[in-house]
Amino acid sequence: MRRTRARTPAELVGSEPGPEFQLSFDGRPVPVLPGQTIAAALWSAGILSWRTTRVHGRPRGAFCGIGACYDCLATVNGRPNQRACLLPARPGDTITTQEGDGHAALDG
Amino acid sequence: MPHSTDEPGARETGRAEVGQVDQVAEVAEVPEFAEVAVVGAGPAGLAAAVTAADHGLDVVLLDAADAPGGQYYRSPADGLGATRPGRLHHHWHTFTELSARLAAHRDSGAIRHLAGHQVWTVERTGDGDWILHAVTGGDQETRTAVRARRMVLATGAHERQLPFPGWTLPGVVSAAGAQAMLKSGLVLPGRRIVVAGSGPLLQAVAVSLTRAGARVPALVEAAGYGAYARAPRVLAGNPGKAVEGARFGAALARARVRVLTHRAVTEVHGDERVEAVTVSRVDHRWRPVAGTGRRIACDALAVGHGLVPQLELALAAGCVTRPGLDGTHAVVLDARLGTTVPGVWAAGESGGVGGVELALCEGELAALSIIREVRGGVRGQEARRAIALGRSRNRLRAFAALMGTVHRPGAGWSEWLTGDTEVCRCEEVTAGRIRTACEELGAGDTRTVKLLTRAGMGWCQGRTCGFAVRELATAHGTGQEPGGPDRRPLACPVKLSTLADLDGPG
């Protein structure tokens, strides 16, 4: 069981990923490794919140990590209420911080 | 009408909003038939499916994830090119062996593996078969159904959470969630992560996080490991568990993780994200001891208080459940893993949280029991195997009961809540409002609290706050919760159009 400690998760599992691509989060480019979910890409970039709550406008991000808690809802390519912890990121995805139920922009 | 995927803009329109009523592809008029349907491709479901197929049964394996393994054997997405995925796992060889058997059975057609299929309800037909209704596709827009004579429910568990001041701050993540994000996406929520709560999962999480490069300054356990020693006979029957515990202890020591028992995180500090936590001593009832708080700097907190079996489908099938020593409900099973409903078996966490070894044992045993029923008996070798598995199961179930007792949250946990601590994360309902509902408005059960405050009415359907709300409500009420486990008629949110069609064809 004795192993030298890795510095990163990728190093631990000997990751040899495919070519990196980008998504956009609130206008800022975020690098993504193929196969990562939107939440994983955002965590990698040190971003922990991408939603504000309906009542108090508090920041939220991924909590349960398995699609059960719905705290990680994000607006993806204009569509609100996407579970970022389940959705694989794709090149060119545009993620915007979701405010409340995400329908304010639609209601005009 | 389904969208063409090569059409420009298909990506934008191809993802339905959760719960949104939208166009839906047609469901097959005549569902696919199988002798055995296994729901869940975690350790229990995999073991059940491959064992049943080994013995010649025709199996369909439905699983919400794209790859087999469940939450325990979650592995990095293919694109991440992990050359040593086993480094994030224990018993990885067991999984690679099961996966190889699954692949062989898939190739021969003995197992149809429906990956990415979330079963949202089950119903019995007039002639005693089961129809399993599932949604699939990138955004779960496509409906499908499978008809099966027998069903094995191996639906696993999700993590139990207790609220505490500051737990909604970004950087506070579920311990199992941190593990899941690490295993699948090779990411960490921070660089200096406190692990807290209760239960053996915390040790595994802390070890994984440190191996992956994080610093874990402390593992905060509200119970104590000493309680295990008070059941020497159970321990003697499970020497492997003691070895595993010792191994985790050594790994934590090597990684310089301080293990703080009889302590809990009673406050999280930070404005927009976690900057530190306060760890306080708790007494044997988990009441925080005033004046013992100590601040630990960190940029993330991974927290969890054990697991809760996911029972939606078992309840939909009509299976009887019972309360367990860990404070959660589980499916009532006989020695052959039959539920109280004919044609329905359950394995793994569904029958009470017990870990991977038990899940593997029960999955195999459930399959052998089905073979016995199909054939009207089993031959010598299979009969001997079933007896051996039954013995292992009893031993492991005894350990699970001990674990459940040791880590069951003490009644005093609610004393670390402040009036403005959010209990229901979805609906932002505070402990103060729940207390008002109980003390001034007379609510004494979760249903009444929910109706008065909306706690548990949000997206997650009370999966996250259900245990806490029940504890808060019954502390003020009669202490007797009517109705047993939380009931959710749908195992996942589904579109209204999907529901509307349930009474249609078929």
Keywords:
heterodimer; A: 108 residues; alpha/beta; Ubiquitin-like (UB roll); 5-stranded mixed sheet; 3-stranded mixed sheet; 3 helices; B: FAD/NAD(P)-binding domain; FAD/NAD(P)-binding domain; Arc Repressor Mutant, subunit A; 3 domains; 7-stranded mixed sheet; 5-stranded parallel sheet; globular; disordered N terminus
Q: How are the SSEs placed, and which strands pair?
A:
The complex is a heterodimer of chains A (108) and B (506).
Chain A: H1 9-12, E1 21-25, E2 28-32, H2 38-44, E3 51-52, E4 59-60, E5 73-76, E6 79-83, E7 94-96, E8 98-99, H3 104-107
Parallel strand pairs in A: 1-7, 3-8
Antiparallel strand pairs in A: 1-2, 3-4, 5-6, 5-7
Chain B: H1 10-13, E1 32-39, H2 43-54, E2 59-62, H3 92-108, E3 111-114, E4 118-124, E5 130-136, E6 142-153, E7 157-159, E8 172-174, H4 175-185, E9 193-198, H5 201-211, E10 218-221, H6 232-237, H7 239-254, E11 258-261, E12 263-269, E13 276-281, E14 294-297, E15 300-305, E16 307-309, H8 312-317, E17 321-323, E18 329-331, E19 344-346, H9 356-375, H10 380-407, E20 422-424, E21 429-430, H11 431-439, H12 446-453, H13 466-476, H14 496-500
Parallel strand pairs in B: 1-2, 1-6, 2-3, 6-19, 8-15, 9-10, 9-15, 10-11
Antiparallel strand pairs in B: 4-5, 5-6, 7-16, 12-13, 13-14, 17-18, 20-21
Overview of this structure, please?
The complex is a heterodimer of chains A (108) and B (506). Chain A contains 3 helices and 8 strands, in the order αββαββββββα. Chain A is 14% helix and 26% strand. Chain A has a 5-stranded mixed beta sheet, with helices on one face. A 3-stranded mixed beta sheet of chain A has the order 4-3-8, with no helix packed on it. The model of chain A has no long low-confidence stretch (mean pLDDT 90). With 108 residues, chain A is α/β, with parallel strands linked by helices. Chain B is of the alpha/beta class. Chain B has 3 domains: 32-77 and 89-158 and 308-403, FAD/NAD(P)-binding domain (3-Layer(bba) Sandwich); 161-304, 3-Layer(bba) Sandwich (FAD/NAD(P)-binding domain), CATH 3.50.50.60; 417-476, Arc Repressor Mutant, subunit A. Chain B is built from 14 helices and 21 strands. Chain B has helices at residues 10-13, 43-54, 92-108, 175-185, 201-211, 232-237, 239-254, 312-317, 356-375, 380-407, 431-439, 446-453, 466-476, 496-500; strands at residues 32-39, 59-62, 111-114, 118-124, 130-136, 142-153, 157-159, 172-174, 193-198, 218-221, 258-261, 263-269, 276-281, 294-297, 300-305, 307-309, 321-323, 329-331, 344-346, 422-424, 429-430. In chain B, the strands form 6 sheets. In chain B, strands 1, 2, 3, 4, 5, 6 and 19 form a 7-stranded mixed beta sheet that branches. The longest helix of chain B has 28 residues, at 380-407. Chain B starts with 9 loop residues before the first helix and ends in a 6-residue tail after the last helix. The model of chain B is unreliable at 1-14 and 19-28 (pLDDT under 50). Chains A and B meet through helix 1, helix 2, strand 4 and strand 6 of A and strand 8, helix 4 and helix 7 of B.
